[in-house]
Amino acid sequence: ASASTLEAPAATQIAADRDCRNFIAGQWVETGRLFENRNPIDNSLVGQVHEAGRAEVDAAVTAARKALRGPWGKLTLDERCALLHKVADEMMRRHADFVAAELADTGMPLAFASNVNVPRGAANFKVFADLFRNVPTEAFAQDVHHGGKAINYSLRSPRGVIAVVCPWNLPLLLMTWKVGPALACGNTVVVKPSEETPSTATLLGEVMRDVGVPEGVYNVVHGFGPDSAGAFLTEHPGVDGITFTGETGTGEAIMRAAAKGVRPVSFELGGKNPGIVFADADLDAAIEGITRSTFQNTGQVCLGTERVYVERPIFDAFVARLKASAEALVMGPPDRTGVTMGPLISQEHRRKVLGYYEKAKAEGATIVTGGGVPAMGDALDEGSWVEPTIWTGLPDSSAMLREEVFGPCCHIAPFDTIDEVIGRSNATAYGLAATVWTQNLSTAHRMGAELEVGICWINSWFLRDLRTAFGGAKQSGIGREGGVHSLEFYTELKNVCIKL
Ligand code: NAD
């Protein structure tokens, strides 16, 4: 179904006792080691989460290994793909449940969860099942130097047990983006959702069980990173590959764990993405695009813009218009009519973001708008709200322009030449994404070629075709996923050479 045809559920009631158990070998596993899942809109308790220890992680990896050799590995490709279609259909049948779970964990606006996260989460199963069924492998006829011929062809086989370690910012979408292709390729998975957002991964366990995915194919272990389920899983010798989305620093820790046993990794990491607006841009479109890229999901999108560069002739007009656009955002609970911005994910993350707000002030930034905590005036004041914020006047060397904030904020700086803006955009350790606004074709192509990023959007942002390569340059990632690129990580490609 296309996102636009979907109806949002009328009301979203979250049960106050939505507990999350581990899902191991098709069973719900309680551990007695509980941590709280709180709703960031008002800090109310969503439920308790059962933290997995080494024993549960080991059981999950063992179950995944068993399923690989058992009923899952024995399915034909058609049967496996049909089952993944059923998973997607069942997710859409339970659309309201997934939306409710996502909202309870994140507080994101209803329309975003309803029209983007859940349908795209479901689509991730269909798209990769269809892709894997249809993608060819290579073959070469070879002349052998001392006479005779040979043929080479390649075969793909599943990599094995895949650890999927997920962040909290778009929980269902980012988790299924990895689980979909992993399962389509015939692997089994152990998912470690973020401790902040355990609900949708848990709910997906119900879906897997209800549509008949064999036990052990999809497992979920809950917990934190260091000295908890995340570390236990990534260190586990029974894991054949680790796919991870999260912070670059966490990627470094996981890479150390993966070094033991030389396990491959696929990493989608942090960013400090530039948004570049040339004077010839369609200004209405640029304002709309940069508003979304900066503030959507309260700025908690890895591809989001935190550094905006605007060509000097339109700088003042752009700043005034983006300020108006930011001030028109409506903060509030997910299902209140007209709300366009939710809270940050947690109190802890708010402390980090407010730390950057303070730092920008201390470094002498001009605050164009925002900069603090909004007064919501009711129980929402207990939530993790921050104001959408825009600064100008900081040097490129300031912390605000070098480090990922992951909040609803950006700094706008003027530029004079294309060479200058390319240099400033690239002067970062990160290289995830860029958004460029221009009507000049040559400028567009030059930016596409010279920006050191994995994804360069021209006159758009977050326009995703799931067949295209997705990933980051420099410290923003390792490898690419999406389309056939996902197969490179989720399968072993074997060459068979036959001397004729
Ligand atoms: P995070 O790195 O703090 O946590 C991600 C996951 O890793 C969580 O499940 C966490 O429990 C786990 N973890 C933490 N330490 C670990 C360890 N030592 N060993 C194993 N697991 C560990 O990231 P986050 O705060 O949840 O997410 C926000 C970050 O994710 C931002 O930096 C953002 O840019 C990035 N991100 C990147 C992409 C992308 O596609 N490049 C997409 C979304 C988010």
Automatic annotation (TrEMBL):
<dbReference type="InterPro" id="IPR016160">
    <property type="entry name" value="Ald_DH_CS_CYS"/>
</dbReference>
<dbReference type="GO" id="GO:0016491">
    <property type="term" value="F:oxidoreductase activity"/>
</dbReference>
<keyword id="KW-0560">Oxidoreductase</keyword>
<dbReference type="InterPro" id="IPR017628">
    <property type="entry name" value="OHmuconic_semiald_DH"/>
</dbReference>
<dbReference type="InterPro" id="IPR029510">
    <property type="entry name" value="Ald_DH_CS_GLU"/>
</dbReference>
<dbReference type="InterPro" id="IPR016162">
    <property type="entry name" value="Ald_DH_N"/>
</dbReference>
<feature type="domain" description="Aldehyde dehydrogenase">
    <location>
        <begin position="28"/>
        <end position="496"/>
    </location>
</feature>
<protein>
    <submittedName>
        <fullName>2-hydroxymuconic semialdehyde dehydrogenase</fullName>
        <ecNumber>1.2.1.85</ecNumber>
    </submittedName>
</protein>
<feature type="active site">
    <location>
        <position position="268"/>
    </location>
</feature>
<dbReference type="Pfam" id="PF00171">
    <property type="entry name" value="Aldedh"/>
</dbReference>
<keyword id="KW-0520">NAD</keyword>
<dbReference type="InterPro" id="IPR016161">
    <property type="entry name" value="Ald_DH/histidinol_DH"/>
</dbReference>
<dbReference type="InterPro" id="IPR016163">
    <property type="entry name" value="Ald_DH_C"/>
</dbReference>
<comment type="similarity">
    <text>Belongs to the aldehyde dehydrogenase family.</text>
</comment>
<dbReference type="InterPro" id="IPR015590">
    <property type="entry name" value="Aldehyde_DH_dom"/>
</dbReference>
